[in-house]
Amino acid sequence: QSAAACPPRKPLEQYQADDALVALAAGQHDKASIHLVVVGHVDAGKSTLMGRLLHALGKVDQKAAHKNAKEAQAVGKPSFAWAFALDERPEERERGVTVDVALAHFDTPKYRVTLMDAPGHRDFVPSMITGTSQADVAVLVVDASVGEFEAGFAETQGTAGCGQTREHAQLVRSLGVDQLIVAVNKMDMVDYSQERFEEIRTIMAPWLKKLGFKEAGVQWVPVSGQLGENLWAAAEAPAFSQWAAATGLPHLVEAIDATHPPPRLTGMPLRLMATEGTKSFTLGQAAVGGKVVGGVLRAGTRVLVAPVMELATVKVVEMAGAAVAAAQAGDTVDVGLVGVDPLHLRAGTVLCDPEFPVAVASRFEVRIMTLDLRIPLLRGHQVMVHLHAESLPGRLVILKATLNPKTGEVLKERPRCVAARQAALAVVEIERPICCERFADYRMLGQVTLRDAGTTLAVGIITALEDV
Ligand code: GDP
C-alpha cells in the first residue's frame, strides 16, 4: 500500500470524455439527483422532520435496509452513525418500516433526493463530515422554541450538547456546500409566531453571511416537523397560513426544488468514492457502495481499485437497487466487482479510471480555516485527519503561512502557530497513504477536517499533492 507503487499519473487535462458513454449514463435518469444532508443541534427535530417528509413522499429503501442488516458481519463495514435514525422511534417500529438505512430517498417534482441524516451529538461530527462531504444541499434545522434556539446557537464550544448550530453550519460551508435551507422548526411551540421566525432569521442571517454563504444561497422555511406543517404543502394551521402565504415563503419541498446543485463532473476521469465495503446476493462477494464523484461508471469495464491498486472488472452497477448500464457523477450506487479481493474493499476505497488513476498520498498541502480553538495549532500538532470516508492520525508537519481568509493573500510566512478563526497554508502528513485529490479537481476527494479529542480544530481543502 505504498504511494510509490502507484502508476504515474497522467495529467487530468489529457482526459477525453467519451460523449456516447456520458449520454448513456445520463439516459439512466428521469430526474436530476441531489444529495441532502440534514444538520443541526441535537433535538432540533431533524429526524422527526425528515421522517415526516419521507413518510409523505419517500421510499424508505427496503432493499438497502435489508442489505444493511445482512451486512452486519461483512468486512470493513463502518457503522453508519449518521444513518437515518427512524429505527429509534417506537412509532416507526409499529409502522413496520425497516429503518437501519444509511440513505433514504424521496422525490420532489424536480429532483430525486438522497437524504443523509446527521446526528447532532458531538461524537457524531466525524460521521457528519462523511455525510456532508457528499452533500449538495444542507438543511440546517433550528428549534424555534424560546430558549432552545438560543441554546443551539450559543457560542460555547467544547461542552457536549452546546451550540452545534454554529459548528454544523461552519462545517457545511467549509466542506464546500453553498446551498443552505434553514428550517426553523417547532413553530407550533411558539404559536406560529411570525415575529419569532423573523427574530431568528435576523440573528442568523448576518452570521451565515460571515461564514461565506451568499444571500441567494440561503433559504428560510418556518416549519413544524412534528405536525407536518409547511413541509410538502403550504402551512395549514390558521395562525401559520395567515402570514406564511402572504410573505411568499416556500414550503420545504419548494425550497429544495429551488436549490441549484453544483455541476456534475461527468467529463472527468472516473472516481467512485466508497463509503462501505458490502456484499449481497446480486452484487456478489466483492462489492462496494458509494458515490460516483467523477466521470462515468459502466458495467463490464475495468477499473482500478485504489489505494491497493488492483484491477477489477465491474460486474454490476445498481442504483436504488436496480441494475443500470452506467452511472454518472452525482449518482449513489452499489457496485459488484470481480477480480479483486473483497478484503481490499472498504470505506475509503476509490474505484478509478486505470489510465487516469486517483492520487494516493500520505502528505499533502492544505489550506485550512481554524474554528474556535482553545489553544493555537502549532507545528507538529497531532491531529485526526478526516478525508472522505477515511480518518487517521496525522501531524501538521509544516505551517507555511497564515492567510487573509477572504483574499488568500499571505499575512505571515512560516508562522509559529495558527490561532482561532485564522486561515493558513499547512502540510499534513498521515500514517498511511490514502486516496485523495486536489479540491480544485474533485471537491469530494479534496476536503480535509482536522480534529482532536472530540472537537473540530480546522477544516480545509487540499491544494497540492506533489512536492509538498
Ligand atoms: P433530532 O435530535 O434533531 O433528530 O431531534 P428529534 O427528531 O429526535 O426530535 C427531538 C424532540 O423534539 C422529540 O421529542 C420530538 O418529538 C420533538 N419535536 C420534533 N419536531 C417537533 C415539532 O415540530 N414540534 C414540536 N412541538 N416538537 C417537535
Automatic annotation (TrEMBL):
GO cellular component: cytoplasm
Subcellular location: Cytoplasm
GO molecular function list: GTP binding; GTPase activity
Catalytic activity: GTP + H2O = GDP + phosphate + H(+)
Residues covered by the Tr-type G domain: 31-264
Hydrolase among keywords: yes
GO aspect biological process, one term: translation
Signal sequence bounds: none
Function: This protein promotes the GTP-dependent binding of aminoacyl-tRNA to the A-site of ribosomes during protein biosynthesis.
Name listed for the protein in its UniProt record: Tr-type G domain-containing protein
Native organism: Cymbomonas tetramitiformis
Residues of the full protein shown: 183 to 650 of 650
